[in-house]
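wait is this the right file?? whatever heres the structure
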């Protein structure tokens, strides 16, 4: 292209002068690696180096990058119909995807509301939950119970649900809605305490939101299926809506298609995102149960849900999601995700004996090594990139959340890099 400098001749600093990058102090951040291609679990950099990706672009690319079936579905859909608004128009890629998702989530007659990111799927769930009570004439129930170490996204409503002390959103206190944060109960006594906590605030609580089984982005913490089932049971008893944020855990990450399956839950609202499109394009959804939806379905115009992300149900994104769901049906994806737990355990568990290591946690396709101290990002990424690995520690945790298609030798390379890194401490 005339007038455009060849990108390869420019330094990283030159190239990055206009872009504002996420989650970093731009002034001191390490120069970003320049990616030009991805395939399977590999990232190819502009200078030809290849990295094994241990985190699948924030755990989205569950089938590996650029899966030919997903690419073909996107291309075919793009040629036929790019985007149309869902206001007054509808199309088969969205209606059929809604049907497929409604069927995948337990419960009869689920309704699926599309959006473009996980944070928005959470916002929509909050709005649905609040308005569910309003439509029933109950005006005081507009707060949510959320948990320590939670992460639900970066928009204002979602931020208000993140860990109140430890999260990166802590300094927005005052700007954010006040919610009711508490700890995840881990035994019967704590569950009783949790029930009391809810009971005291019941008139003001619209619902309880949790990342089921694995709390990802705020620290890779796990809780048991029994804890989750106990929370669900208390919600049912006290008639509070249970919102499962499966944006991270959905589509196989915990070893089952959804984490809720392991606690046999029938939630009121489920948020989906990340792996929904197989990691190809932004797509998210909020799934509401029949009973949550019911008060919206009335003769009163004001009972309608007044929400509509511009790109909701984008046909190209829906086509990618269909191809991704097809792959889950055709290939042993969940077995692959389960196998990862064993491999992570085999390679990472020995680190538990290391004095710098607080904990090693492996579950489904997630492996996390928690260190005594926070990991400085720049030297850590340098260390991993030198070993051909793409890993991005999060505070005191080095984690793996790769594509389920990753092979054992690649897992071994990633884990060995982590072991070596810990040994440099
Ligand atoms: C990533 C994530 C979100 C936010 O999704 P975005 O697409 O980044 O807005 C919400 N909840 C959970 C559990 C997540 O992991």
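ok assuming it is, sequence goes like this
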């Amino acid at each position: 292209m005339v007038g455009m400098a060849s990108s390869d001749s420019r330094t990283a600093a030159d190239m990055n002068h206009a872009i504002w990058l996420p989650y970093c102090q731009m002034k001191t951040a390490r120069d970003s690696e320049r990616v030009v291609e991805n395939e399977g679990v590999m990232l190819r950099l502009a200078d030809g180096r290849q990295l094994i990706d241990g985190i699948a672009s924030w755990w989205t690319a569950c089938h590996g990058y650029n899966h030919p079936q997903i690419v073909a579905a996107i291309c075919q859909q793009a040629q036929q119909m790019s985007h149309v608004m869902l206001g007054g128009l509808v199309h088969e890629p969205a209606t059929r995807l809604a049907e497929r998702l409604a069927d995948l989530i337990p419960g009869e007659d689920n309704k699926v509301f599309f959006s473009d990111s996980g944070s928005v799927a959470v916002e929509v769930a909050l709005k649905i939950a609040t308005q569910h009570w309003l439509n029933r004439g109950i005006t005081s129930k507009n707060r949510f119970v959320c948990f320590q170490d939670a992460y639900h996204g970066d928009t204002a409503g979602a931020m208000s649900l993140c860990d109140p002390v430890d999260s990166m959103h802590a300094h927005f206190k005052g700007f954010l809605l006040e919610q009711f944060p508490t700890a995840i109960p881990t035994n019967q006594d704590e569950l009783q305490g949790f029930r009391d906590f809810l009971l005291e605030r019941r008139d003001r609580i619209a619902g309880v939101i949790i990342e089921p089984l694995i709390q990802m982005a705020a620290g890779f913490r796990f809780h048991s299926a029994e804890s989750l089932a106990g929370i669900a049971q208390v919600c049912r008893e006290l008639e509070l809506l249970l919102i499962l944020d499966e944006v991270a855990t959905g589509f196989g990450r915990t070893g089952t298609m959804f984490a809720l399956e392991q606690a046999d839950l029938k939630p009121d609202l489920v948020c989906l995102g990340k792996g929904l499109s197989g990691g190809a394009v932004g797509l998210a959804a909020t799934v509401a149960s029949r009973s949550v939806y019911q008060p919206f379905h009335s003769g009163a115009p004001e009972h309608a849900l007044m929400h509509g992300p511009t790109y909701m149900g984008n046909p190209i994104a829906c086509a990618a999601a269909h191809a991704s769901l097809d792959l889950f049906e055709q290939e042993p994806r969940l077995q692959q995700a389960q196998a990862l737990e064993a491999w992570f355990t085999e390679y990472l568990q020995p680190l538990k004996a290391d004095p710098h290591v607080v904990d090693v946690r492996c579950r489904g396709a997630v492996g996390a090594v928690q260190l005594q101290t926070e990991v400085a990002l720049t030297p850590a990424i340098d260390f991993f990139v030198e070993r051909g690995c793409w890993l991005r520690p999060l505070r005191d945790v080095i984690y793996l959340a790769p594509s389920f298609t990753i092979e054992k030798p690649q897992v071994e390379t990633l884990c060995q890099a982590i072991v070596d890194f810990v040994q440099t401490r």
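Confidence is low (pLDDT under 50) at residues 1-6. so i think its the right one actually
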